[in-house]
Design goal:
Strand content: 25-35%
Helix content: 10-25%
Largest sheet: 6 strands, mixed
Number of domains: 1
Strand order of the largest sheet: 17-18-19-14-13-22
Number of helices: 9
Radius of gyration: 21 Å
């Protein structure tokens, strides 16, 4: 059912879509109606529910919900947006509170995909990966320490408590876009979880906690040795609203942050996906950098992180957003600020090669680069193991010479007047778990 907050655009949408969108594109089940079960569900969604996990990271030795928080509102399930009518699609997106990139530049005359223009999604796109259409919904990712057993993941497995005391059940949930076999620890939920009023103002609505409850099935996580545990009862407090007021101090920004970070020896095992989803792979450090990829520092994020919420993060942009810190035996901090430069820690070399787990290797990158935009970003390093062991922290400084990053609710490169977009990252310094001797990963095949 379309919510009251969408009423302001409903009449406009009905007229505009009828006039500009072919009937076949505008058709489909009403929001909230069941799309069926078993073979009646979209094939793509059924593929995502298959229980295959390969070399996926464990982020804590104990199973737990590590984080959960509202990412953005309104932009999931916007009818009528398409690259075939850019002016109308921009209007529809902005009315829904989404960002629309202008001046999209792609090489070789390539036609930009919809994702180059906006992070808003159509109802049919959501149905293909979440099982049913939704309209003007919000995004709320939930990060677990162990991979999810996908077949046990259902929307009614979660209870989202809001700051006004009400409890919400999500409309849909999926492992998408964290669908690579070596990921799968995040449940991304869409529903109606809040508004865009800054949390310091009266009327602000946002989640305060998320709890796993017993739903259609018992949500399960997979640990080492194919140990399976119930996640029922796991919970996490939510950090508040991502729609903090513009101009707050950087530390008070409500944008995405890091949940964990782990350094391991480079491995491409599991860095693939079901054949139907292989358009963005291979994208591992090995695929992008070959023998230079000795180590992988994987960042586990609370939400998608891109330069403005729409424009893709590129493998070449390490120095604009990230910094890795190592501490030598004398206690001095060595900051790896630029990719391609060799730094020395106790006389041992260490070098950032670039970013990975984004999209495929290309000769050059532009606005048409397609990347996963999910909860995992890899920093790929070369050098000696002795130097790598001295790594202590990964930073997203977000101030000064470093640009901040945004989740999909960000402003794009051409923010519309009067629209309140989600906030950028605060300054982040995340301790790095060193897993060079024990990668702490799990593989599960039924």
């Amino acid at each position: 059912m379309i919510t009251p907050r969408a009423a302001r655009v409903a009449a406009f949408l009905a007229i505009s879509i009828a006039a500009a969108v072919p009937a076949a594109a505008a058709s489909g089940p009403a929001a909230g109606t069941a799309t069926g079960s078993g073979s009646q569900l979209p094939y793509t969604y059924r593929v995502l529910r298959r229980d295959v996990i390969i070399n996926a990271d464990i982020w804590n030795r104990k199973p737990e919900m590590m984080a959960a928080g509202l990412g953005f509102t309104n932009i999931i399930g916007v009818p009528g947006i398409t690259t075939s009518n850019v002016p109308l699609s921009r209007t529809l997106t902005v009315l829904a509170g989404g960002a629309w990139n202008s001046n999209v530049h792609c090489s070789n005359g390539q036609t930009p995909p919809l994702s180059s223009y906006t992070s808003a999604a159509t109802p049919s796109a959501i149905r293909s990966t979440y099982g049913q259409d939704v309209y003007y919904s919000d995004g709320l990712p939930v990060e677990f320490s162990w991979p999810i057993l996908p077949s046990t993941l259902d929307a009614d497995d979660f209870a989202v408590k809001l700051n006004n005391g009400t409890t919400i059940t999500p409309q849909v949930v999926s492992i998408w876009p964290n669908y690579l076999y070596n990921e799968r620890s995040v449940a991304v939920m869409f529903g109606h979880f809040g508004n865009r009023i800054p949390p310091s103002q009266a009327g602000a609505l946002y989640p305060v906690s998320v709890t796993v409850v017993r739903g259609s099935s018992v949500l399960k996580l997979v640990g080492r040795g194919q140990r399976i545990v119930s996640a029922v009862g796991f919970s996490a407090r939510s950090p508040g609203s991502p729609y903090t007021a513009p101009g707050v101090p950087p530390a008070q920004r409500g944008g995405p942050t890091l949940v964990a970070a782990k350094l391991s020896r480079m491995s491409a095992v599991g860095n693939t996906a079901p054949p139907i989803f292989r358009q963005n792979v291979p994208n591992s450090g090995v695929a992008l950098y070959g023998r230079q990829a000795k180590f992988r520092l994987r960042m586990y994020t609370s939400g998608g992180m891109t330069p403005n919420g729409v424009t893709p993060l590129l493998p070449t942009q390490y120095g604009q957003y990230f910094q890795v810190d190592a501490v030598n035996s004398a206690g001095k901090t060595i900051r790896l600020m630029k990719a391609g430069r060799t730094y020395y820690v106790d006389g041992q070399p260490l070098r950032v090669v670039g970013l990975a787990n984004l999209g495929r290797k290309q000769a050059s990158y532009d606005d048409c680069y397609t990347e996963l935009r999910n909860n995992y970003i890899d920093i790929v390093l070369d050098g000696s193991a002795a130097a790598a062991r001295r790594i202590t922290t990964v930073e997203i400084p977000s101030t000064g010479r470093y640009r901040p990053l945004y989740n999909p609710g960000g402003p794009g490169n051409d923010p519309a007047p009067g629209v309140h977009y989600s906030a950028p990252t605060p300054p982040i310094a995340e301790p790095v778990m060193i897993s060079l001797d024990n990668p702490l990963t799990v593989t599960y095949r039924p």
